[in-house]
Amino acid sequence: MRKKIAVIFILLLFVMSSFAGNEWFQFYKNGVKALKTGNYQLAVANFQKTMKVKQRDKKKIRTYGMHFIEYYPHREIGIAYYYLGDLQKADQHLRISMQYAPSNRAQEYLSKLNSGATPPKRRVQPQKNIAKSVPAAAAAVPKKVSSSKVKLVGERMSIAIFPFETMGSAGNDLGNIVFDKLLTALFNQKRFKVIERNQLEKILDEQKLGMTGVIDASTAAELGKGIGVDAIILGSVSLTRSGAISVDARAIDTESATIITAHDAYSGNFDPQTLKSLVERIAVKFVQSFPLVEGLVIQKEYSNIMLDMGSDKGLKKGMKCVIYREGAEIKHPVTGQILGKDTKILGEISLNDVYEKYTSGSILSNGDGSLIQVGDKFITK
Q1: Is residue 144 part of a domain?
Q2: Last residue of a domain, one of 97, 114, 131
Q3: Which of 104, 268, 295, 367 has the fewest Cβ atoms surrounding its Cβ within 10 A?
Q4: What share of the chain is helix, strand, coil (3-state, %, to 5)?
């Protein structure tokens, strides 16, 4: 009797495991099908479900019995994100796929990302008979409302780029090339106030450090604070014997010497144009990491200021904001046209605690912080 019960129990376990296996396999099949037909949102949803059971990409995985398939959920979801325009998630999953099970398909899309290639526009299949059953006014797709331009108050975030450390087969010349190209790329983005190379070289020479690319974060932050910048960017460039190149860069807050954000870019092939594309991609990522956000002061307790925007708008710990107050309207004396409003800068704050919908920070300087009140405005520096 006990043997029969044991046999039944084993059979039940086998049936349950087979059912679970078929379930994840079905999600993967559905995801692949949705990706091929251009339904990228559905593809993402299915790949996310299958990865909860089987996380690793594999060249060969058993589904049931002696049936094996190629299994690349990270690669395929990365491709889906690519066509959805979420390039950061696409890059993340494609890299994970390359770590688990390198493939030409994953490398192809990584190369597209690194070259800055824009995903093709999605084709929307028209739905039949909609116009007959729905009034024209209701069936019309509403136009996207354009957001008003951000009012640029005060100076923008100032950064200094420090020499890049060279690793692997990369020589010092390659580190200097990355340094120069990143400086140019960030300047052309017109988001930051970038310290020019000659000024930085002078400071490093005075400190007897030189452009060697071997400067730790705390030293760089101290030097950056000494020259009055908000953040410094440093990193490394690595070149393998096979010709693969990787560039890593991180932004460090000069007040706390902590990393605010970090980005990298990779390519399996190295040439001047590829390197230029990698650096420009990193520059864009830095700009996206420090968005221009404006909002209101909603609370003040001594030197602690609370703002009505949070991580959902891109705010991060270590970022700085300019607090200001608008006054009377400024009118043109002849035409009477309203040109703007009188603006008074009240101070700067550094963000300490960032939540989804709100943020708190501490008053730094550059103004009379004691004048800050609830209802005053802010903009990210």
Answers
A1: no
A2: 114
A3: 104
A4: 40, 25, 35
Question: Each residue of 122-159: pLDDT tens digit?
Answer: 544 444 443 333 333 333 333 333 334 678 888 899 99
- Confidence label for 358 from pLDDT (cuts 50, 70 and 90): very high
**Statement: residue 172 has pLDDT above 50:** yes
**Whole-structure pTM value:** 0.57
Residue 153 counted as domain residue:
no
Which residue in this structure is represented by tokens 């086998």?
14
Q: Distances from the Cα of 294 to the Cαs of 21, 24, 26, 148, 342, in angstroms?
A: 49, 44, 46, 11, 17
In eight-state DSSP terms, residue 312 is G
Q: Which domain holds residue 314?
A: 294-380
The total of structural domains in the chain comes to: 3
**Same domain membership, residue 308 and residue 366:** yes
CA distance 115 to 327: 47
Q: How far is CA 76 from CA 25, 45, 70, 103, 117, in A?
A: 14, 12, 12, 11, 18
pLDDT digits (tens, 9 = 90+) for 224-271: 888 888 999 988 899 888 888 999 999 999 888 889 999 999 888 888
Q: Which residues pair with 69 in a beta bridge?
A: 61
Residues 6+ apart with CB under 8 A from 237: 164, 165, 166, 167, 170, 174, 175, 178, 245, 246, 247, 248
- The CATH number of whichever domain residue 59 belongs to comes to 1.25.40.10
Least reliable range by pLDDT among 76-90, 109-123, 341-355, 365-379: 109-123
Helix (H, G, I), strand (E, B) or coil at 165: strand
Percentage, residues of the chain above pLDDT 90 = 29
How far apart are alpha carbons 348 and 368 in whole angstroms?
9
